[in-house]
Specification:
single chain; 293 residues; alpha+beta; 6-stranded mixed β-sheet; 4-stranded antiparallel β-sheet
Length: 293
Amino acid sequence: MRLRAMAKINLALDVLGKREDGYHEVRMIMQTIRMYDSLDIRKSDRPGITLLTNLPYVPTDERNLVYKAAKMLMDEFGIREGITIKLEKFIPVSAGMAGGSSDAAAAFVGVNRLFRLGLGEKELMERAVKVGADVPYCILRGTALAEGIGEKLTPLPRVPECYVLVGKPGINVSTRLAYENLDLKEIQRHPDIDGMLEDIGKGDLYGMVSKMENVFEPGIIREYPVIQKIRENMEEHGALRAMMSGSGPAVFGIFDSEKKLETAAAALKESGLARSVFATDLFHRNGGTVDDE
């Protein structure tokens, strides 16, 4: 089977505090977009897991979340047959768009289907959090409020129709670095997530966009000013608002017309600020988990 692992953006991201176990309490509004990696999963005569990728620097052993997810289910259910997974990466790596987490989510769904394990969505999500905090959301997908360490999920109504431009500069930012650069006492602006939830419920795109905030952004921009330049470029060319996704450094802009999106994409490419530029729209949950291609 061939599965799509969708990227996400954070329409709002707040960090509330640090827990005794070292994790941080967060409150976020997550949204899936139509940018995806592909996983081709099939049974193999060779025992164990063989993972292949199109990028030479992506690990193909237990350091890869796809491998971890597949191994977790195969160990739990005593599966002795082998599988081969071909992972084709398109979502930028270390970009704040949950590429690795989404790949792991697709692996959970794929192994569950391939071996007819009979696990429901909730059961997969309970296992997924052991691989990564964003993995349960990447199984759920669509628009959702994420709380706790990101694993407490509440599905939300659809965000009003809009278009998304993604620009990633030629740098990578680790989530660990983002948290190290974040001083909870120095956060000056917290996103109005409750207000954003109301706007989404009313279908008010402009109200929602006006409340977009990411508490990681100031600290990461101090380290990498190019992120601010990409934001400004998008907004100068028609974005209602542009913001860094997750721990960065990818930036996304929200547009209310496809024509503005196309104009801004051309301008960003011409600027040379972003190594990769991608124009798309939102992906809405349709009752399933990970789509077959």
